Structures are given as C-alpha cells and as structure tokens.
Amino acid sequence: MARERVLIVGVSTRALAESAWRSGFECSSADAFGDLDQRQWSTSLGLRRDLGVRYSATGAVSAALRFPAECVAYTGNLENHPSAVARLAEGRELLGNTPATLSRVRDPAALAGVVGRAGCRFPRTLAPGERVPAGGAWLRKPRRGGGGQGVRPIPGGAVVSARVLAQEVIEGSLGSVSFLADGRHALLLGVAHGLAGEPAFGARGFRYCGSLFPFSIGPLAAARLDAVAQAATLAFGLRGLNGVDFILQGDEPVVLEVNPRHSASMELIERAGASDFFALHAEACRGRLPSRAPRLAPACFGKAVVWARRDLELGDTRDWLARDDVRDVPFPGERIRRGEPICTVLAKAPDLQQCRARLVDAARSVVGQTAPSLQRTPA
After folding, report:
1. Mind giving me the DSSP string for 83-143?
2. H/E run at residue 43
3. Do the domain assignments include residue 219?
4. Is there a single domain that holds both residue 111 and residue 232?
5. Are residues 260 and 357 in the same domain?
6. pLDDT digits 0-9 by tens, 149-175
7. Which of 225, 250, 285 is the endpoint of a domain?
8. Which of 8, 238, 266, 356 would be a feasible disulfide site paired with 29, CB 3.0-4.6 Å?
C-alpha cells in the first residue's frame, strides 16, 4: 500500500517532517534551512541554501509547489499569512486550520473576547493609533512575529503603529499547553515550560530558546487552560494540533496567544511517548479525536535552540547525525551569522533541573565545535 504524501511548509519544518515520517507518511518540505538531518525524513528544500533567497511565507509556498502531494501541512510562521496557506492548499487536502480560521484566531480582539468568556485573563492590548499610557510596563510585539523575535519594551507616550501590538507586561512563568481539536471539541495533550532569552543558549531579550516538559501546574490552572482550549476550538473551528501560550501567575494562566498549528514544545510530548503524533494531527483535522490523551513516560524532556553569539563557520557536522541529542543539523562548512540558530539540542532526565543542565551541556558541546567566521555570510 502506497504511503500518503504530505507537503510541509514553514520557517522550520524538521520536527513536523520527522513526526510525519514516523507516522508512515511520505514527506516533502520547504523551509528557511533545509538542514542536513532533515533529509533523513523528507525530500527537503531550504530557501537560502538551495535557492539563494531569503525566507518568506509566500516564497516558501511557491518553492514547495514543485513537490507532488495529496495533503499539506504547515508550521510557524504561516499562521500569520492566510493567503499563503490558501495557495498551499489549492487542489490538496489541508491538514491544519483554514485561512478563515487563522484570520479570526490571530485577531487579538476576537481572542480576548473568547478568553474572557472562558474565565481567563488576556493582557491589556492597545489598538493601532492608541498611545501607550505613562507608567507601567508595556511590550511592542510584531503582528506577524513569532518566537519572541522583535519583542521589546515600548515607552509610555509612544503611538502604536499598524504593524505592531502593544501589550502590558505580565510577570510569571512562561508556559504552553498543546491540544488536539476536531472543530468542536479539544483534547489536552500536555503543558510545557517555555525558555526565553537565556544566555546559556545564546538567546537575548524575549527570544524563544526552548521548552521543558512536563510543566507541573495545579488542577485549577489546568481546568482554566482546558476551558480556553474548548472555547477557542468552538469559537474559531480549530482543527488538528494547536497550542496556547500563557504566563502562569499562581493558579491563574494569563493567555498570550493561540498558536493554531504545530509548535516547538510538541516535539517533547512526542518524545515522551505520544507515538504516531502526526497521524493524530491528521485524524483530528479529519474530525476524529482519540478517546483520551496518550500515556506518557514519567520523566522530563527538554529542547533548546542554540543561537549563535557571533558569526561562525562550522566544521564537519556529519558526526552530529549520530547524536540523538542534536537536531536541525547544519551542513559542514556552513557559515552562520550572529543571532541565527546553530541547531537544536535535546535532553531527558528525572527532573526539570537536571534536564535543563543537560541541555546546557549539549549546547556547550556543539558551540565548542564551531569557529569564528572570517567572512560574513551574505544576506
């Protein structure tokens, strides 16, 4: 029996492509990187490496259309580009949320209303043209951003432009809950603790740099997150894998956004024992939810994105392919600019503290095999 062919597009597609391959799909992918290890799981195309162009959602979709496939899926940042998703899905089954759903769920005003009706808080958010109040702390967030990139403080008195959001700062612990949805109901899969701006991984500011799973939260917080997932699924018609980013303050999760697609922390749920993860996503998109969440191993799992602190030139990275704790492996001799990702490292441990320590050790290991670049990588 021929395997079902899926085409995956996004900034980084390796984790979802690996999941699709493990679920028995034949996979093709187009993203910003086209990393060395990705070719184990998919026929991959990296825009910069293979085509010599900068990544864009529309460019990635245009490049991807050369691959035959019966169905398509996407990762970040396509949720911010509904028209690109519409083009990707022309003549193919869309395993993910529709362009209309994306437009609604990424509208902060619409999401704030759903979150409020579910009994949770949403940060105060200013509309374009409003002036940031004096006093208090506020953040500027790109409307089409992701992963904390471009997030920075915005001073009182500034006028909010059409390209950004201004949100009040919420203090607490960063988390994300992952769930499956069939358009009417949601099934929570797990909660992860988010890592952002950690110097140990070369990150600064609010930039996402990893996750630790599971994140232990109380039953009240879990019930509130479940209520948000159920309400958002029903209000927006969410399907497949989705996530909710939040800040935990005691037992109260303050919802930041809904990620209506496969997100970074989901890889850890799969490593914890959720087999056929992409198949679960496909089935949910087709209107079929499992009766219960997968049973997961009683251990802690972590991942960290290792960001370059300076311009680098890599040596022979082929040895990294044999390591189970490294993913998104760049090609030998590749030049990586400061602020770009080098790779992803993974860890497993009895508790979160040890898991994070192992991530730091793995990050040091790969950085130790790099050398300063004598020539800047062309933009």
Report:
1. HHHHHHTTTSEE-S--HHHHHHHT-HHHHHHHHHHTT-B---EEPTTPBPPSSS-EEEEET
2. strand 43-46
3. yes
4. yes
5. no
6. 889 999 999 999 988 889 999 999 999
7. 285
8. 8
